Known about the structure:
The chain is of the alpha+beta class. It has helices at residues 21-37, 83-90, and strands at residues 3-10, 40-45, 53-56, 59-62, 71-79, 102-107.
Amino acid sequence: MPQFAILIYADESLHAVDAAAAELEENDRHAQDLSASGTMSLAYALTPRAQAVSIRRDGIEAGPFVPADQFVAGFYVVDAPDLAAAVAIAGRNPAVRTGTGGVEVRPVHSGGITT
Length: 115
């Protein structure tokens, strides 16, 4: 079955070191629902952008690679029969209901886990 990456955009990641369980509850429930349905094959939440390190040809600096109001706060991969089905799955992500966030769906071309 085709795979689709769902990139979660937000103004900041909820997954700070000191994040309270209540702050993560809606997102965790969404992930549990996808996992229980067998739709989601992997998921990663990224830490807040203050913890990012950017590496370029001319050096290394603290902070995100691209300064922006929204950035990728996490991503997951779903198995879906087609793009329309993947978009329907992604539309249930809690970030879609925020005033500043949203998601992007992209077909996975190649890759996978290597050992």
